[in-house]
Amino acid sequence: MSAATDAWRLSALELAARVRSGEIGADEAVESGWDGPAARWEEDVHAVAHTDPAARAAGAAAARAGPDAGTGAGAPGALLGVPVLVKDNICTTDLPTTCGSRVLAGYRPPYDATIIARLRAAGAVVTGKGNMDEFAMGSSTEFSCYGPTRNPYDLERVPGGSSGGPAAAVAYGLCPLGLGSDTGGSVRQPAAFCGVFGLKPTYGRLSRYGLVAFGSSLDQIGIFARHAGDVAEAYAALAGPDPCDATTRPAPVPDVSGWEGGVRGRTFGWPANLWREGVEREIVEGLDEAAQALERAGARRVTFDFLPGEFAVATYYLVATAEASSNLARFDGVRYGPRHPASTDVRLLYTRTRSDGFGPEVQRRILLGTYALSAGYYDAYYLTAQRARTRIRREYEAAFARCDFMLLPASPTLPFRLGEKTEDPLAMYLSDIFTIGANLAGIPGLTVPVGLTAADPSPTGRPPLPRAVQLLGPDDSEPTLIAAGRVIEVRGDVAHLSRRHPTEFAWPTKR
Amino acid sequence: MSITRDEVRRIAELARLEIPEARIDRMAAELSAVLEFAEALKRLDLEGCEPTAFAPAESPLREDALDGRRLSTDTALAAAPEGEHGFFLVPPVVENLNP
Q1: What φ, ψ does residue A384 adopt, rounded to 5°?
Q2: Quick check: is A343 catalytic?
Q3: Does residue A217 carry a catalytic annotation?
């Protein structure tokens, strides 16, 4: 194969190795997703909110000049020349950072997020900013001021959200790595819908300095990749304490270098009560296949009942909206973003700027959070939710006393159609029913793809769609989760996405 | 638990949002649906559960010292819609300063 023209298909590990050896130039590596066969996908999928060829070239030149090693835990140059699509809510000085919102139109932050500095230190290059639901509020990437991102496997379907742009880009081959943020599942659910790995690390493992805050007690930056090994390498490069983020964990970063070490002797929880109803058949079949792959690799299954996800969803939509109503108070037309032109006093300036600038879902959540925190309702809603949060954390602690990690769905459904849930907020919220608990408890979670559904060629049928499972573990269990993800990647007897790239399929539907 | 139209207006005022009259009924219904769903928490036994504000993590203290980074006034003001003489510019906050 021609090294440069097929570079877009490589894993991050493989691509970086070839750039280090000089076989592929850093600039060719970065441009491979923009020039190659993957390029025509962007027009239809619309994963990217902002990019700039000059910024990409400057990034590649800086990577070539030699990474400034030493800030991350990974090896210097571990991600040399690897392009990364970064969600539009992570601050970058060389590209706009707008959170998919009109309220931040054109905003260029005066500093890079710590995580961006670490990416660059490892030799990686920001290839653009990924589309997202406005302020990360949504599960379909339909609530973006730039219009929706579409699922690369079926353009009539959503890529999940809120980090749908980076998820879709990694799936179709723009880049082997993406960064998102996960407040209630916004990395793990789109990873499932796009058939890629999606890691939400333990709360506090990746610095959030420069991540625009949504729900501060829940937010965590997460990683998209097509391969378990790439998740491990990116985690090693990015995790670690940051003096600029007091919520980062000071304890040593867990060592994920043993990601190929398997799961022999491990136990995994099988909370089958959670999918007895309300979960699509293909998702349950994916769970069975993943469980069998783990068992064949020497892991033992432990069956138990777990607290139904409805309680976590209810808790989350009080806690997260309360925090959002407070965090989003700063967008008022004074310090950044556009300002409503016809405001004669400061109160009107705030109200008109915010009413014009925020889309309907963000306004809905700000109102809900304001209500949950307001006098007379605080005890009934916010305080109750905080107590429920304690209960949920204890449920996980009890489960992890019986197993090393749990296997469960990442989403109750396969990717749904555009417009299917935008008019029914509660239905949209319930698509996070399996992911939200991990944010409330602060624990890590990993979405692992398990191949595609069978095609249904009937006129009302659908093309093959990605299936996925989720692994949840106790604090700092990332090494276990990634190793288990690797076992499923290798041993699952399924048509696996990491072996069959989406571009090998014919276009399922064409608009 | 349902939210009334007046409550929607009141919280919109608190949140500095303007909800058009035509959308208030719809908003009240949508917020009420989520709050009704949240009633599920009443079925959860919370005996002995103290409130958790943050996901459990150590919160280290550090020296309150400068780390060498700083933003110049110009940089800090660069993204502001209006600024003057090194300040953010806003419309009058107090209506009439003259007695």
Answers
A1: -60, -40
A2: no
A3: no
Domain topology for A43-312+383-504: Amidase signature (AS) enzymes (3.90.1300)
Please check the confidence at residue A364 and state whether its pLDDT lies above 60: yes
User: What is d(CA A243, CA A508) in angstroms, rounded to the nearest whole number?
Assistant: 48
- Retrieve residue A455's tokens: 């095609």
Counting the structural domains of chain B, the total is 1
Can you tell me the ipTM of this complex?
0.93
Q: Which residues of A touch B28 (CB under 8 A)?
A: none
Q: Establish if B55 belongs to a structural domain.
A: no
All residues at 6 or more sequence positions from B89 whose CB lies less than 8 Å from its CB, including other chains: B80, B82, B83
Question: Per-residue pLDDT averaged across A124-141, rounded?
Answer: 98
Average the pLDDT over each of A63-77, A136-150, A338-352, B79-93 and give the range with the smallest value: A63-77
Print the domain residue range for B22. Answer: 5-43
Global confidence as pTM: 0.95
**A144 in active site:** no
What string of DSSP letters covers A228-243? HHHHHHHHHHH-S-BT
Q: Say which of A217, A335, A345 has its CB closest to residue B91.
A: A345
- B39 located within any domain: yes
For residue B13, the domain's CATH number is 1.10.20
Residue B62 lies in a domain: no
Ordered by start, the domain boundaries in chain A are 43-312+383-504
Question: Quick one: B32 exposed, middle or buried, by C-beta within 10 A (0-12, 13-18, 19+)?
Answer: middle
Q: What is the DSSP string of A328-371?
A: GGG-SSSSSS---TT-SSHHHHHHHHHHHHS-HHHHHHHHHHHH
pLDDT digits 0-9 by tens, A227-268: 999 999 999 999 999 989 989 998 999 999 999 999 999 999
* A 332-361 residues inside an 8 A Cβ radius of B: 332-339, 343-352, 354-355, 358
